[in-house]
Amino acid sequence: MATEEFSKDKSNQQTNVKCETFEKGPKRKYTRKSKADEKAKEMIDQMINEQTNEPTNRQIIEEKYDERISELRNQHGGSDKEQDERSYLIYRLEKNREDNIFEEVMQP
């Protein structure tokens, strides 16, 4: 008889169980900092600094380049061959100005 009561109790327990589902809340944010994150941030900061410094470097190089061209223009005298070479050099410097400045800026 004890086994019959136990089985009845067990069957009653199973039918009385309620199923409830809980909604998942927002997950906890990952707050631990890694060394890789710090290195990446340093690299990004360095790249930003290089980009902000590049225009000033470019301006300095452009000024020197223009100064060199004006010096060549202001030189007088010499043989006809020297004057022709000077005028050709000025022509080549002016024609390739942007490429030459870019190459000089990109040098480490």
Q: Which keywords apply here?
A:
single chain; 108 residues; mainly alpha; 4 helices; 74% helix; rod-shaped
Q: Can you put this structure into words, describing what you see?
A:
The protein is mostly helical. Helix content is 74%, strand content 0%. The protein has four helices and no strands.
Topology, pairings included?
Blueprint: H1 2-15, H2 35-74, H3 80-95, H4 97-106
Question: How many strands, which pairing sense, and closed or not: the largest β-sheet?
Answer: none
Low-confidence stretches: none
Strand content: under 5%
Structural class: mainly alpha
Overall mean pLDDT score?
A: 76
How many whole angstroms does the radius of gyration measure?
40 Å
Biased composition (Basic and acidic residues): 1-11
Region (Disordered): 1-39
Short description:
This protein has 108 residues and is mostly helical. It is built from 4 helices and no strands. It is rod-shaped.
